[in-house]
Amino acid sequence: MTEREDSPFVPIIVSIVSAILWAIFMLLHIFVIKFDWLQNLAIIVLSLIIMGCIVGLMWVFWIFKR
Fold it and tell me: Quick one: average pLDDT of 38-63?
């Protein structure tokens, strides 16, 4: 019997798409909604943490599934 090697295609695509969507969200947020620079910094940091947790959790599930 041969084991089928799971390809990381889906996690890679989700990571790329989420990075692109985050960049679009940040551009729209910074240029359309006028907040103070400190509020913008807080939103950027918080959204990076949330996106990192979601993408990281997806990769952890993919690794444990293998």
Answer: 91
Q: How many domains is the chain partitioned into structurally?
A: 1
Buried/exposed code over 13-52 (b: 16+ C-beta within 10 A; e: otherwise): eebeeeeeebeeeeeeeeeeeeeeeeeeeebeeeeeeebe
- Whether residue 7 is contained in a domain is answered as no
Q: Is residue 10 part of a domain?
A: no
Residue 2 and residue 16: Cα distance in Å, rounded?
Answer: 31
Single pTM value for the model:
0.74
- Residues 51, 18 contacting (CB under 8 angstroms): yes
Structure tokens at 37: 């620079």
